[in-house]
Design goal:
Distance between the termini: 26 Å
Shape: globular
Strand order of the largest sheet: 3-4-6-8-7-9-10-13-14-15-16
Oligomer: single chain
Structural class: alpha/beta
Number of helices: 17
Helix content: 25-40%
Amino acid sequence: MANAGLVRSLSAALGVLVLLACGAGHTAAAPEPDRPVVETDHGAVRGRAHGAYRTFEGIPYAAPPTGALRWSTPEPAPRWSGVRDAGAPGPHCVQLPVLEPGGPTGSEDCLYLNVTTPSGADGSLRPHPRPRPVMVWFHGGGFLNGSGDAYLPDGLAVRGNTVVVTVNYRLGVFGLFGHPALGGAPNLSIADQQAALRWVRANAARFGGDPDSVTVFGESAGGLSVCAHLTSPASAGLFHRAIVQSGSCSTGMPAGAVLPALDAYKPFVPERRTLDQGVAAAAALGCDRPTGPEVLACLRGLDAATLATPALMRQFSLVSYGNRMLPREPRRALETGRFHRVPVIQGSNRDEMRIFIGPTLAAFPIPDEAAYRARLTRSFGASAAAVEAAYPAARYPTPALAWAAVTSDASFTCPALRDSGALARHVPTYGYRFSDPDAPDFIGLPTVPGFPYGAAHGLELPYLFRTGAALSGPQRELSGLMTGYWTRFARTGSPNAPGGPDWPRLRTASPAVLSLAPGAGGVTPVDVRAEHHCDLWATVDS
């Protein structure tokens, strides 16, 4: 059972980012006198006024995927009469606690989204003279945890003059299960997001947004989702720009990256693997029946708690390719130019893997060069010596920080640069590296002596969303700059503005990306390929 404990540790690490706004959501304050009403294509909704911006939360974008609709592609939401209250978020999708023990929370009836839009100059939701760009956010959490309402985008909306939509989508076994009786692995997590994008296309103008100027953006699993939309034929025409944060198509972790006994992590897997696991899971659940309809009837008759086990949620947290949704492995689709021709921002954080490795060091320390070398050998085999030559432990304050640098570059930084190069051959592409060594820990990570988290996975989010994190003066300046970059890109397809630090387009001959850090000289182009040994990682089989 030791391996189960190791996997639980990794699951907690992958899902830790969903804690980012547990205490920072919209409060249940007394209703304000100004409750703006918007008529959507399915009925009227009454939101809330917050001074400079308005929110409309808990709007259904698809029918509840419950009962006979469990594991079905999203169906249209039913119309309603009267005015529906949109003053609070809808239920989260079924998920397990991130760090503490406990059973599942949330509901299968969870396909809701939230809209944040600037108020008019007079404080009203009057139409803007020019429609605003729309930004649609897909949350992270390893396809295991999270919700749209955890991210408060009023800064993007007000400072960037955009309409921001955050989305719930099915998670784990409810979103990424596959079985021959379903006709394959339908990637319902991604299908839900596509349904939300169709809702945006139908309703953006009603909230002052431009349905012909939609940017999809996401971090971690949300970034992987954006990758899927870039390469999915079914997403054609649903968006016009894309931002991928720490979730490129080639993202993956080598074996032993976080815990010595864990296999390699690849978020995209062949559909055949998912189907085989689905057949085995159905049998283990007592639903091995002679016909497909009987199998599905049995599985759909199980309660959510029976399905939302740690094992099943983790097993079905990977996106399947080789089907109608994703005909090709996404990274191969990029390499061969088979993706939607839209401008892209893509990047990663300098110290990505520290967030995953730090919490494991008490149980699995890396105290010396011998332990570091053993990790290298486990993960990289015959290439271990070459990796150690590029990352000698003596160059870092501790061997554990050396290991975090190795795995950050192998798992995130260089895969993102490789994918960005493939994109840049066809579309305007802008690469970044978030580099703030003192990014605030707004999650509540455990303190690990001698192991600062730095610019770890997800720690750029307080610079784009309101999380309650305290930013220093220079960090607030960086937040304003990043908000401007993201929202200008959403408006024009370029993040640049006259007089600001120039963000160069990424080109094959000059693969400079923009380093984002606070303070004088913190925002500047850097050669990520050289600094992070990406030529080495192009040759390493992990």
